[in-house]
Amino acid sequence: MSEERLQKVIANAGVASRRKAEVLITEGHVKVNGQVVTKLGTKVDSGDEVSVDGLPIEKERLAYYLFYKPRGVISAAADDKGRKIVTDYFKDIPQRLYPVGRLDYDTSGLLIMTNDGDFANLLMHPRYEIEKSYVAKVENIPTVQAQMQLRKGVYLGKRKTARARVNIISTDKRKRTAIVRLTIHEGMNHQVKNMFKAVGSNVVKLSRESLGFLNLEGLISGQYRPLTHQEVDLLKQQAQGKQIR
């Protein structure tokens, strides 16, 4: 029988995130075959009985969805301020889903929802270089020099961003605004907004239009669709640097 780390089993069962599962283990909330286990990294197999606070867990079927997140929605599984959250759109889905990464409250666009922690980590870690394209409406049309700065990377605090691709889609010289596509593979907090701010432009509207080879074709804001098995496999291959055929 194959064995898996206890925190992964708990997370895959939809009880909690991987990080929260680690806290539950170290604080003594988890039992394996009736015995409290507090050691992280403990491995269990399908024959072991795992319970959290006395309730046995059941393995949850892995699920993957592509979601067109609307503006004015929190990229989280819960919000203590009572605001609308992305999981509100998945109440008919039996699995406990959470977003892969996040989009700001006022940012719309492509977001992947899943209960597969390993898959989420693959897509979120910058070393795997999954490209993300954003379309931004900005005040102050980026100059040629500003575009070059974005392409080479700009300093956000002490950290310099990786190279980006920049394409001016349209401009309105009278209003001094532009529609710009920016493609990056990192995911720092508010990165796109801060990159434009660093070169003198202010983002007034932002949407993520693609992630890897995925896009929002066929969806309108608030809609979602399941990812196909092939799409999930291709994303994993792309993240791991394998050739996609």
TrEMBL record:
Domain RNA-binding S4: 4-67
Family matches, as InterPro entries: PsdUridine_s_RsuA/RluB/E/F_cat, PsdUridine_synth_cat_dom_sf, PsdUridine_synth_RsuA/RluA, PsdUridine_synth_RsuA/RluB/E/F, PsdUridine_synth_RsuA/RluB_CS, RsuA_PseudoU_synthase, S4_RNA-bd, S4_RNA-bd_sf
Keywords assigned: Isomerase, RNA-binding
SMART domains: S4 (SM00363)
Enzyme class: isomerase
Example GO molecular function: isomerase activity
Keyword Plastid in record: no
KW RNA-binding (keyword) present: yes
Family annotation (Pfam families): PseudoU_synth_2, S4
Entry-linked PROSITE patterns: PSI_RSU (PS01149), S4 (PS50889)
EC number of the protein: 5.4.99.-
Annotated NCBIfam families: pseudouridine synthase
Similarity field: Belongs to the pseudouridine synthase RsuA family.
Name of the molecule in the record: Pseudouridine synthase
Organism from which the protein derives: Agrilactobacillus yilanensis
